[in-house]
Amino acid sequence: MIKILIADDHPIVRKGLREILTETNDVFDVHEAENGPEVLELMEGGQYDVLVLDISMPGISGLDVLKQIKKKSCSIPILILSRHPEHQYAVRSLRAGASGYLTKESAPQELSSAIRKLARGGKYVSASMADQLLDYFNDDSSKRPHEKLSDREFQVMQMIASGKTVGEIAEEMLLSVNTISTYRMRVLEKMNLENNAQIMYYAMNEGLIS
């Protein structure tokens, strides 16, 4: 039996993932968490074989949770399950210590096999993403401007590109307006852009917003 912790802030998503796993021939012991702090608390008190973690949770994001778990030298394999396409977050997730990346769109077909592979100590990405990862790690010159951003800067950039104000971003991320303004300035500097309109144009061209 594989003991799994599924972390997602949407109850309907957790229910759907649980149903996907119960419909397979495998025996999964499924537990749930709805936010980052709950994940960290449950990780302290329970032994899980695989953590299935959403990136876009309010407050403490999935990437922040991932980094905190890895800081504690926890060896649990973590599968990032996200609505974001692979090219947006897969490299960042794997670089932060995840063992796999799967889009929610692919979950009905691939979730159980991805969990089995991680439970055996393997890694999981799609075949097309594996090729992209090889190119990324072998050729620094091919990196695009947005790949120079930290994970938090990238998150802020995406939210700006989606049309959200600094105040709205601050509220969603549970940070101050001044902190978000600082991240915005770093994004503009690192990407050599001048304003929000250019951020939006760049993100649309690169397919960084869904």
What does this protein look like?
The chain has 210 residues and is an alpha/beta fold. It has helices spanning 11-22, 36-45, 62-71, 86-96, 107-119, 127-138, 151-161, 166-173, 177-191, 196-206; strands spanning 2-7, 28-33, 50-53, 78-82, 100-103. Strands 2-1-3-4-5 form a five-stranded parallel β-sheet, sandwiched between helices. The chain has two domains: 2-138, Response regulator (Rossmann fold, 3-Layer(aba) Sandwich), CATH 3.40.50; 145-206, Arc Repressor Mutant, subunit A. The chain starts with a strand and ends with a helix. The chain contains ten helices and five strands, in the order βαβαβαβαβαααααα.
Brief characterization of the structure:
This protein has helices at 11-22, 36-45, 62-71, 86-96, 107-119, 127-138, 151-161, 166-173, 177-191, 196-206, and strands at residues 2-7, 28-33, 50-53, 78-82, 100-103. The chain has 210 residues and is an alpha/beta fold.
Task: Indicate the CATH architecture of the largest domain.
Answer: 3-Layer(aba) Sandwich
What is the helix/strand order?
EHEHEHEHEHHHHHH
Q: Report the C-alpha radius of gyration, rounded.
A: 17 Å
Number of helices: 10
Query: Roughly how much helix do the residues carry, as a percent range?
Result: 40-55%
What is the overall shape? Answer: globular
Q: In percent, how much strand structure appears in the residues?
A: 5-15%
Strand order of the largest sheet: 2-1-3-4-5
What is the number of domains?
Answer: 2
Structural class: alpha/beta
